[in-house]
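Let us begin with a simple case.
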Amino acid sequence: MAGLHFSCAKWLGEDKSANPLFEIIGEELCAFVTEDEKSAWRDQFLVPFNRQSHDRQLILNPEMMRVIAQPLCRYRDELAQRLGLSSPEASLEELGAYPRAEFAEEQKMACVRDLLLGNEVCQKTGRPIVLVFA
């Protein structure tokens, strides 16, 4: 089955981990943006993100990722609490052994974790994170 995938340089995100990205960006992440971050969130992230949102390939450049890195960390921490994980880095298997169906919140956690991992590569290499539908 097709889905959304992250990549940056030689790094590849987990299979279809990017699927919840538009829901996270469009509906949830703004609650984790501080007052001091709002201008950059709007001008340096949302404007270019929305401009590309219907393209076959979405490019998240290093500047865009720097703007959302801290809000993503705060969102990840909140997701860990909602899910009842022992820490933000804890394995999702704490919620039950695989194979099993994942809840929407678990899929969001996998997306955020991959996006943060991709950001590390993005900042080190200066290359963008690319989101593709495949």
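The second case is a distinct protein. As before, the sequence precedes its structure tokens.
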Amino acid sequence: MLTRYFPLFSVLFVLGAFTLAAESQFEIVDSNEQSVVGTITALDNTQVIVDAQGTSHTIPLEKLSKIQNVLPNPYDGVPVPATGDQHLLRPMPSTQRGANERRLIASLLKNEQTTQKSFPNNVVALELKDGSRLTASSFTVAKNQVVFRLLDQPDDSSLPLNTLSAVRFSVRSLSEVVNPPADWQRLAVPNVEGDRLVVGNPESFDVYAGILNEITAETVSFTVDGEVIPVPRRRAFGLVFHQESSPASAPPLGTLSLWTGTKGMISDIRLNGKELTWQTASGLTVVVPLEMVDEIDFGSKRTASLLDCELVRSEFSLPFDSDIPPTQLHFLQTFYESRTKNSSHEAILDGVVYGRSITLRGKTSLEYILPKPFVSLKAVIGVEDQFRPNVSATFQILANAQVLGTWELRGDSASERIQVNLPQNCRTITFVAEPLSNLPAVLTIAEPKLLE
């Protein structure tokens, strides 16, 4: 619960909302739908730091549900969509929002003079294979490379053509970005036969199968049955691109939505001052002012704690030399084994408190059986602060006897946030710690979560 990290705002803080309006204010919502409002001072793949009433608070990312801009979308004339993506229009309120948060948000909304913007009528909506959606003011294709400029951005960006799933031209409103015509939604599905060019308008269009050559500001060059056909771009409604099967990628860190309608399935995120840098799984890197962010959704995927699964095997041994006298060896074995925590406990890594963790001491192997298949496993791995810095070991994760990853962890290095894909129909997961010296390993796996 965020109340653990944030004291309630004082009345003086609420009355000072006018001075805070100069800084972008965001509502931070946790997985229990409790929220707090403050200024984000740091944000990356591991944590968010929020300034509330002059005090800095650090919250691990896995405890977050959403980060929402307090102010409404500045683009006008936007009707509420019938389904999905309502967050593009207004931040969704937290069901557990405190009274002080409600008063602060009300003051900000009442007194902030948000500049209204008209949505351009020639926006290009790009759909990427990783699930991202980009709104662009310009778009061309040449030599299998896409060059575009995101709406409200000063510079061009580029991507390989094979990262695109579909593209629509002359999108006239933010609602059209969010909710494409029903016919287009039925058409824009993975296609293994070739590219498809859609000509016409939302009320009536024709579809041609072929191969895209290039796109300029005036023309779409498309090959149909061996003949190159130049189609005026003003007549092109959109394109659906050829898609081959590709290996599954790791689930995104979260979904970032901008006021302009861009929605990125982010694999990396970092705040530098007032500029936010984020990257999609397709390799696109975007830098935007933090104030342009409407929402960052860290997912409501159904998860289960690995620590709630059945522990079916626990093996422990010492890395000491065999010439140690049996009496001493037995004492050390008993001493360290009694301190090997196979059950859940609270741990502190890099100053962050994790409520459910397991610590592996000595040479340890733990095997869990899963009640049903899951898609991936994520956790934080490292050395607890109390055991630093003189500890080093290798750590492995196996699933169905297949090695999913190997990490070398040291007490003088920061902990790592990991996420690994699980094999299809995976039913067992094994953790293995192997010391790199004659000192027992002391490694901690914090908050191991299974994602459906």
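The longest helix spans residues 99-111. Residues 123-270+278-286 form one domain.
Keep these points in mind for the review questions at the end of the chapter.
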